[in-house]
Design a protein that fits this description.
Number of strands: 19
CATH superfamily of the largest domain: Ribonuclease Z/Hydroxyacylglutathione hydrolase-like
Distance between the termini: 20 Å
Shape: globular
Number of domains: 2
Radius of gyration: 25 Å
Structural class: alpha/beta
Oligomer: single chain
CATH class of the largest domain: Alpha Beta
CATH topology of the largest domain: Metallo-beta-lactamase, Chain A
Largest sheet: 9 strands, mixed
């Protein structure tokens, strides 16, 4: 609203409040001993009611209701793992991954802080992209403190590793007796107001998204050959979340060969507004064929201070056509200044007195959105072109 219109609206609201108060004073002192007085009383009562309705419509609660018609996305600092909270205007919620195992409840405490900011007290769906400890390790602690509607994953562990087998077993033990669903490419997660489509899971991927026509990908021809990956990373679940014209892409830790298979020779993914950088910014992921084909407007890299945020991946995302900003959850201290974003775009920079700052994305169905750095309180707006 322009300033002149805002001032005018405030003036009208103030006038309506004065009229309502004056009406009530008149009513309280009006005798009703004649028919004319009774008619006047009824007319005044109706006029007061209209004035009060106008005041209520302009009250802060109405502005709050308007603000709630937004999608909220929190990129939570779990020190180089993933935990992303999505809250729809309906209040429906999805938590993608839970970070590391209990370290004095650090991860769960940070998830709960994001929940409090979003105004929710439980989580409808917890989606585990894959069974590496930095993604699934937080589940046992989470279920002690947060009510969860259902757990979603890709099914059995596929990695021949004692560590991953241990973490998968801990996950199954933690959710025993709770609703669990195994998903496949093309499945959906139901949250009112959102479209959530599973693009990839358990090493497989979709070829087309309903309502979106795949397009030839011009970046495939120059893409390098990526090695096969036998780990759970290649089994990562990936989601496309759509809210009106706004689109958010999260592919977990999907690695290069699977990325290329997803988008080549035809790319089924439409242009993206917000991209969660694959694999925390590892060089094993973030192929140009994927990143440049989806044309993100903004990217968030959920790296740790000493994990990922690698120069090659950072550069690929940074140079993506149309990218406006690349946010980082931490300064990548193993990298150099040329491959770290400006400090204003880092939630937890080197030398900060404490970690735990997060990014909060607020998106409108028209496609515009904002990103707030909780450390600085600064918000940047991104308008849909």
């Amino acid at each position: 609203m322009k300033p002149s219109f805002r001032i005018a609206a405030q003036t009208v609201t103030l006038s309506a409040m004065r009229i309502a108060v004056q009406c009530l004073l008149l009513l309280s002192g009006s005798p009703l001993n004649t028919r004319r007085a009774r008619r006047l009383h009824a007319f005044t009562l109706s006029f007061c009611a209209l004035a009060l309705l106008f005041v209520c419509a302009q009250a802060p609660g109405s502005a709050q209701a308007s603000a709630q018609k937004r999608l909220l996305i929190y990129s939570i600092d779990v020190e180089g793992g993933q935990s992303t909270l999505i809250v729809a205007p309906s209040g429906g919620s999805l938590l993608v991954d839970t970070g590391w195992p209990d370290r004095d409840g650090r991860g769960t405490t940070r998830i709960q802080a994001a929940m409090k900011d979003a105004g929710i007290t439980h989580i409808d769906h917890v989606f585990t992209t894959h069974y590496h400890v930095d993604h699934v390790g937080g589940v046992p602690e989470l279920v002690k403190h947060v009510q969860v509607g259902e757990f979603i994953d890709h099914g059995p562990n596929r990695e021949d590793s004692s560590i991953t087998r241990r973490d998968f077993a801990a996950y199954l033990a933690a959710i025993e007796g709770k609703p669990r669903r195994v998903i496949h490419p093309g499945d959906t997660i139901q949250i009112p107001g959102l479209s959530i489509v599973v693009l990839a899971t358990d090493g497989e991927h979709i070829s087309a998204i309903p309502g979106v026509k795949p397009a030839p990908n011009p970046y495939c021809a120059s893409e390098r050959k990526w090695p096969d990956d036998p780990t759970e990373n290649a089994r990562s679940g990936g989601l496309l979340i759509t809210f009106g014209k706004f689109r958010f892409l999260d592919l977990g830790d999907l690695t290069g060969a699977k990325e290329v298979a997803l988008v080549c020779p035809n790319n089924p993914i439409p242009p993206i507004d917000l991209y969660l950088v694959n694999h925390h910014g590892m060089d094993l992921s973030n192929s140009r064929a994927l990143v440049e084909a989806v044309h993100p407007v903004v990217a968030i890299m959920n790296n740790g201070a000493h994990k990922a945020g690698m120069p090659e991946a950072w550069q690929t995302v940074h140079d993506s056509p149309g990218l406006q900003d690349l946010y980082m959850v931490h300064t990548a201290e193993g990298s150099d200044a040329a491959h770290n974003s400006p400090e204003a775009l880092i939630a937890n920079p080197k030398g900060a007195p404490a970690d735990g700052a997060y990014f909060k994305v607020v998106a409108s169905p028209a496609g515009s959105f904002s990103v707030t750095n909780s450390r600085t309180g600064q918000t940047k707006e991104y308008r849909r072109k």
